[in-house]
């Protein structure tokens, strides 16, 4: 049975993000084919895709290697996410379905419950699922794909400290869902912008010399989430 190149691509990408392959290390087709139990054809296709995504570079006399992003390139990714996440929330307020709302509300309930218990690992997974569902509710395949790639690359380049007050983070998630449910795209955008800016301050570069990331931009008008349903 021929394993699709996209499955091989996902496996290699996941291993890059997890640090199985160090930055700058060579990725030979033979080694990868043996590791994932496939022929070299899907590996070759996967490497081309990963190069287009920025995880892999082709070097003269060395072939495919894991990319070595600069600090500026890493910072640019966070700035892009700060711009695109609010756009996704605004579109979701206009295009979401009842199925999307049901999932988002369920995630908020679980997140608030886990926050009370202090389970940080569960919260991280639930937070990722929340934001993936939110952008899917935007009805924009291009935006969904772009943000998905950004999240993978940010997870590769940064470690994320657990929030000091996770309940506040999930209060913001609840406020976003309320705005989306009411079709209030401006409020959904504003709350998501504030939430994303705060989340970015917990990111620290993984490679040597990495420091805590300064907030990408400063919100001029803090958003009041009090009084909203959660």
UniProtKB/TrEMBL annotation:
Keywords: DNA-binding, Transcription, Transcription regulation. Residues 2-69 form the HTH gntR-type domain. InterPro entries: GntR_C, TF_FadR/GntR_C, Tscrpt_reg_HTH_GntR, WH-like_DNA-bd_sf, WH_DNA-bd_sf. SUPFAM superfamilies: GntR ligand-binding domain-like, Winged helix' DNA-binding domain. Pfam families: FCD (PF07729), GntR (PF00392). Gene3D superfamilies: GntR ligand-binding domain-like (1.20.120.530), Winged helix-like DNA-binding domain superfamily/Winged helix DNA-binding domain (1.10.10.10). It comes from the Bacteria. This is GntR family transcriptional regulator.
């Amino acid at each position: 049975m021929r394993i699709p190149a996209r499955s091989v691509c996902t496996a290699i990408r996941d291993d890059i993000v997890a640090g199985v392959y160090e930055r700058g290390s060579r990725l030979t087709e033979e080694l990868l084919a043996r590791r994932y139990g496939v022929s070299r054809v899907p590996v070759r296709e996967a490497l081309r895709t990963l190069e287009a995504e920025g995880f892999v570079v082709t070097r003269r006399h060395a072939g495919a290697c894991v990319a070595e992003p600069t600090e500026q390139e890493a910072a640019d990714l966070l700035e892009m996410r700060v711009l695109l996440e609010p756009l996704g929330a605004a579109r979701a307020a206009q295009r979401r379905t009842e199925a999307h709302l049901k999932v988002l509300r369920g995630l908020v309930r679980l997140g608030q419950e886990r926050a009370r218990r202090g389970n940080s690992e569960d919260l991280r997974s639930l937070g990722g699922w929340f934001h993936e569902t939110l952008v899917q509710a935007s009805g924009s395949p291009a935006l969904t794909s772009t943000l998905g790639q950004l999240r993978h690359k940010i997870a590769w380049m940064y470690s994320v400290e657990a929030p000091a007050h996770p309940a506040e983070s999930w209060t913001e998630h609840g406020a976003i869902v309320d705005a989306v449910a009411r079709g209030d795209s401006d409020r959904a955008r504003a709350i998501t912008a504030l939430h994303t800016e705060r989340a970015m301050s917990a990111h620290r570069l993984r490679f040597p010399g990495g420091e805590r990331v300064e907030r990408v931009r400063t919100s001029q008008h803090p958003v009041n989430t009090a009084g909203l349903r959660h």
